Amino acid sequence: MTALRPTLRQPDITRTRLLECAHQEIHQRGFRSASLDSILDKAGVTKGALYHHFENKAALGYAVVDELIRPFMQNYWLPLLQSEDPIACAISGIKKRRDKLKANLLAYGCPFNNLAQEMSPIDEGFRTRLQGILDDWRHTLAEALERGKTTGKVRADVNTPAAAIFIISALEGVIGMGKASQSSALYEQGLRGLVEYLERLRPT
After folding, report:
1. Is residue 133 scored above 80 in pLDDT?
2. Coil, helix or strand at residue 121
3. Residues 96 and 44 both lie in one domain
4. What single-letter DSSP state applies at residue 151?
5. I need a labelling partner for 199 at 20 to 30 A (CA). Which of 2, 5, 47, 75 fits?
6. Who contacts 186 (Cβ-Cβ below 8 Å, separation ≥6)?
């Protein structure tokens, strides 16, 4: 007997589909320009279904940050928690973005940084969520670099909190420059420069 496949009428499937389509729309157009009608059309659901799950557009945006953007960003820093070589781990994450996400990042930028630039100055709900993601990323990277000192993988004189801020700023800046210029060569050159900086954090 063939099992029945779930349909979009099921509440959990509908909610997931709304989040995925909202994330795509926000990434491509920004939150303020994102069209609810476009999201509903892509998700194949009614406005009533949207408001069953989300009180308003802001609530939908917050859920996108909490449930999609945060896990997307964590995918790159969580391996640092258990790595004995944080520099190699960070470089691996950078190359992963370069190899798997370059086209999307060049076209639309980093979804996290886009929202941080657009919404943090004007919406406290977005600001606190995005600041939380940034703080977790920054602390995890700084702690990993500090741990790398004890394993002999990071130079003892490295200011790890400052290095973590610089690495994150450089990465997001390179993505932003790549988006602004639509230049794959500039994007890859910037990432190479960041990798070279990371390599210089190793003991000589």
Report:
1. yes
2. coil
3. no
4. T
5. 75
6. 177, 178
